[in-house]
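Tutorial handout. Part one gives the primary structure; part two gives the three-dimensional structure as tokens.
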Amino acid sequence: MNFKSLFGLSMCAMIVSACSIDTQPNYFVTVDLPADRNNTMAYLLSWDDGAKIDSALVTGGQAKFSGHTGDPFIGRLVVDGARGPIFIVEQGEVNISPEGKVSGTPLNDKLTSDKVRMNELETEFGKLNTADSIQSVQSEKLKNAYDSIPVRAYNENKGNTLGLYWFLQLAYEMDLAHIDAALAADKSLASSQRVKKLREARLALAETNEGKHYKDFTVTYDGKAEKFSDYVKPGRYTLVDFWASWCGPCIRQTKVIKELYNRYKDSGLDVVGVAVWDEPANTLKAIKSHGLDWPCIINAQNVPTDLYGISGIPCIILINPDGIIVSRDKQDQALIDDVDKAMADYAASQEFTVPSENTVSVTPAAAAPKHAATDTATVTTTDNSVIF
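Part two.
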């Protein structure tokens, strides 16, 4: 017998067996979904870079994924084009309920526990009357407790996937200096594509902030190229709404924008929507269902968000007649105040006097009175845009 050949065959068998072990599934994700989602496609994405990891057909009210991972990673569920929960893909069995609650593995259980507590604090806060001095003190305590959870969770999980998730919850409120300081203190963050993009966004934000000239861009949809500058008319103010159909806060702000548009559209204000991070069909459906009467650039995706350093939506900017951004990232009453002031100044600038022997003053109609505080309650969308 040729022992050398036998030994070689044994080694090959061991290598094949080891390779097989290294590639066999070690994570399993089961998603329970409403029956009306049957026969639609579900996708598991990498939340960090958007890469598609797996797909599954929804049958029997469930979508199931399995695969092999060495290190845990942050996943995102998408069902029939609608965004679902963010969770940790790690070894073991992960379960996602119809309400979007994630359980079954250590990191997900810790993540869910902290999220549940934050939701409880938010609910308690919403029940308080902050105008009352006693309840105002309690509301401040609840706010501090709420804000402390991501900080504590990040510090407890520095260097792991859960730490990255919590850092990103904090980082969207950070400026460039604070992000750079965090990167210097926690080297593991540098490998995240989302952190890298966030830092790039802060650099872009500095170039497109208040006081800077707007930047032009071109978007192609349905075979037609549209330039943003075609909607920014010299001599008029332009209110620009970067939004998406699935974004609840975006839909809420349409009420504010509608009132501003109706008040000032005949007095020097134009409005243009820019649909980002959205499916064109969903955008068009939302425009119709919410009665958005102004023009909208469809299918902009990442083009303007990268250019303007937009990390979250809605992002609303106001451009003056000279093309300078005079307001950015304001919502509700703060947005109303900025537009009211800009339009009052615009109306005043339009007043002029014609010098002659018989001087005639030509004055347009007075600007509308300042807007009262609006109802900023969240508008519930009936679009097929979210699943949890």
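Part three, for discussion. The chain has ten helices and 17 strands. The radius of gyration is 26 Å.
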